[in-house]
Amino acid sequence: MTDTELRVSKIEDGTVIDHISGGQALNVLAILGIDGGSGEEVSVGMNVPSDRLGRKDVVKVEGRELNQDEVDVLSLIAPAATINIVRGFDVVEKHRVSRPNEVTGVLSCPNANCISTDGEPVDSHFEVLDDGVRCTYCDTIVRESITAHVSVT
Ligand code: CTP
Ligand code: ZN
Fold this sequence. Notes:
Order of helices and strands: EHEEHEEEEEE
Low-confidence stretches: none
Number of helices: 2
Number of domains: 2
Distance between the termini: 37 Å
Structural class: mainly beta
Mean pLDDT: 88
Bound molecules: cytidine-5'-triphosphate, zinc ion
CATH class of the largest domain: Alpha Beta
């Protein structure tokens, strides 16, 4: 990588989520539960030029190593993402996201009468299909715009 491509500073320890589909960075933050109130040190690059994707987004989280379960949910909106674990400024681990079989508590069901959305203390739970996700409680299928159903709580 050349210096001109470095739009956001390197981090010392933490996680770099690279090769996020252009425009999806804010949804990635929502899925990871990162907002201004979480107090974490986060850098975001949006629509950065990329050889592989044309344009990509990049999210860098200082001081936190994301685990595989957390990042697998990202595959629903950023299938090409790479997860880089950084220690002492070096990338010590690099892996791809993989599609989970199920997702608990990240997305919210669009059915207002669903037990997971009507005020009961029940975590949402979805089965991941080839082309969307299905609510385990009411069988509602979300095919498009999954990100519209990310619950930002
Ligand atoms: N990175 C960072 N801070 C570091 C080390 C790396 O922010 N201390 C970022 C780089 O800017 C890059 C990503 O982590 O966006 C992956 O780094 P690296 O593996 O060095 O880059 P590439 O070889 O270009 O990665 P790839 O082959 O996955 O495209
Ligand atoms: Zn439901």
